[in-house]
Amino acid sequence: MPTPGHRTLIHIAALGACASFALAAHAQDAAPAADAEPAGASGSNVLSPVVVSGSRISARGFTQPTPTTRMVAADLEKVAKPNLFNALAELPALQGSTGRTTSTNSTSSGIQGLSSLSLRGLGPIRTLTLLDGQRVVGANVTGVTDVSQFPQLLIKQVDVVTGGASASYGSDAVGGVVNFITDKRFSGFKANVEAGETNYHDDRNATLQAAWGRGFLDGRAHLVASAEYSREKGVPSPRFGGAGANGRTWFRNPAFQVRPIAQTTDGKPQYIAIENAQQFQYAKYGLITNGPLQGTAFGKDGAPFQFQYGSGGVPTGTGTVTGCITPFCVGGDLSGTVGGGTTLGMNMARQVAYTRGSYELNDDHELFFSLNYAKVDSRFTPNPGAAKNDNLTIQCDNPFVPASIQTACAANGITSFKFGTSNANFPKDIEVNPVRTQLRAVLGANGKFNALGKAWTYDAYAAHGQNTIDIRVANMSLNARYNAAIDAIRGPGNTIICRNPVAVASGCVPLNILGDVPADPAAMAYIEPANGPRQHSRQRQSVASFAVNGEPFSLWAGPVALAFGAEARREQYHVTGDPYGNGVSAASPNTPEYPADPLLNTSVGNNWYAGNYHNAVGAYHVKEGFIELNLPLFKSASLGEANFNVAGRHTRYSTSGSVDSWKAGSTWKTGVDGLRLRAVTSQDVRAPNLSELFAAPVVVNNTVNYQGTTLTVQQRTIGNTKLRPEIARNTTLGVVLAQPKWAPGFSASVDYFDIKVNDVISSLTTQQEVDLCVAGNQEICAAMDLVSATKYVTVQAFNLASMRNKGFDLEGVYRFDLGMGLPGKITLRGLATYTRSFVTNSGVVGTIPTEAAGVNLGNTPKWKGQFSQSWDTDTASFTVSQRWISDGVYSNEYIECQTNCPVSTLTRPTILNNQMKGAFYWDIGGSYKLNKNLTVYFKVDNLTNVDPVAAPQTGTGYGINPFLYDVLGRQYRVGARMQF
To answer: pLDDT tens-digit profile of 720-740?
Structure first.
């Protein structure tokens, strides 16, 4: 059996054999700005802007020092995904992106169904996603955009800038920029029809796209429009027991057994990764979890039976089980496990309509507008039932308790018992339904003018966008009503009623949860009202931008390029939660849909089992100006040519004041054929988002330890309007070999990156804030009062943490004719990102910096690679591609040992086996042009149907990591493209 190291070598060898010496896909900056559309193309007389993502300079021939990977329309077509997001998320530098297979085990996160891109594992909030170089209104309270809402058929290229770009584009471009560029001069008609499904005959999907464009008035006016509909039907929940959905056999209830630290003096490891984990604190239809009757489960028609514990476990009567480590045994009766019942892929429908029009006032000035409508509707099940882990108390006189158990209660002198259940007799599972609807309008102008004896170009636009986000949750129970309904007694006429008279007066209907018995529809309607948790959000963004480009003078090596401009932006949001989740306030009074109930908490809310949404409102505005210069340093036959690029931006936020970002870099096209060197360093910023600044206030009671005394305090969770922007220092050094004469068609690059982020915004627990105050942090001390009669701790985000990510990007491409009289060209491509280190320091007392590089439970494996080999002719193409995740660990802080282990600590626990396998996927695809107007194609992803690697957790978990691994299995797609 090959070791992890040997497996890595095997994978590298396979990639080398497949891709020859091409280490990456499109060489960074291999296609310079000069390749952009020439002036006057498509009948236009106005100077066409040159797209150089990551820079605001549009001078022709300008080569920026920041690495940029470009995917053009032909590349995106070969990937043949229903959503361009999925194609981009596979790029190695993009790590931690969210999509429809992530966060499906969450009800309240707000990011479910959100297709947002993340560079370097820094998170979508530190990756700026643009459409035609313009900001797009956020699709949730953190302000990140939803790529699913973009017009995808009209995208002619996507630029991924893998370096800081705040000086050019402003806040959030810490990890880099992803810029989607549309074909503004498209003429004719084109359409795409696609359909597919997985190897398990689920996640059936269909995509319909059409685009049209035409010039008018002798080419002075141009109009393009597109419409698309895409539906991916998802993978249904298999519900309980750990059985994989629709025949998937790979799910085995993985988990970590964790021993108490005090027991690790025996030389054995604290953590053990297991499969077939059995949580012994509940069973499918109910389990007595403590006392003399511990181990009694309930089955068909409520009949009691002896529960089969895994690990040969025997209940102790005290809540523990011999041979098991709380809360897990291994094996036994797994019928009630819920981890495998999480939806693998959401049911998602996308509707997008887009139009852009332009009109040339004269040869120098053009007006344009664009309108975008998009709706993304997602549905999924976070978990089956509503598991109650050993936190219920059942009275022995409850008439639903079988007579034999009532007799056993009397014999053992008890009047109640502790109880846990999966609630598998609930007829319907929880369903979360986020719907995001975007309306966005842009009005702008671009053109050219003369000033100071020089020609200048300008680009100006104003945009307003709104995203309306409605989250509706069905089949969700109210905790207080559930507790009242399961606590039953005999009433008048020997009827069964709820014990609590207040609950009876407000409509309580008793519910039997002991055994496999049909749930009373009236009881279910009482505990799961038709109007479940609701959240309505309105996110608005208004932007005005003006930029000027020109070459005001020349130096000894050529003209100096200058770009400058100003921008203003306003961001605002308004969130409304339902009264049961939010609590009743002036902003959310009782409504007929949510009638008053004396059992429910009317002030704080938090009454639902999950999905307690709260009201929030906030806004901020930004004013900024920028300037960028490109200075030619020298140009000679022997030394080559070099330039120096520098940019600065001054930004003023209404909440946190002023901050500066800048960059300085250089490219040197050496005298060595094809060899270019580049270096850039920058200061980048991420401003706190609306959610961090204006999070909804929530007040609950909690306890803290303060100087050796336990205190009961109010935990006041709220946003922090005093947050400062995060400040990053981003440095990149690179070598590019671009199509040398001795190797025509070959380009490659290697770049070293180093990203330091300080003042990282992070949230703390109540106890962590108290500990930091005791340690002397006066900013946090100001957020609490532990001496007055009303003691409180304000839980909010602070600028405490720091991050540093270092590594290498390798990219390249080799294109050559097949030769020997055979038709077509061969293209060998590949990308690879090596994350050398990714250290996070939380700033919290008692913690140590954590290393995320190579942690395959997270987002940043040591190596992430993408490789392809294509054969293309005028009529046909065939592509074989590979995706690779290197082997990793569960955590770099774990100490792996089998015997003679050191005593575990909170920061350095011991583990039996700290190895987590990577993955290697094969994809194939091809196309054939039936005639000049019609092309048919196919695509198979995960050809060998590689299963996802088990991702154990310390509690009931998903059991997989969809951020890194393919969780759907082999997928087939076929389609046709038409163009006239």
So the answer is: 999 999 999 999 999 999 999
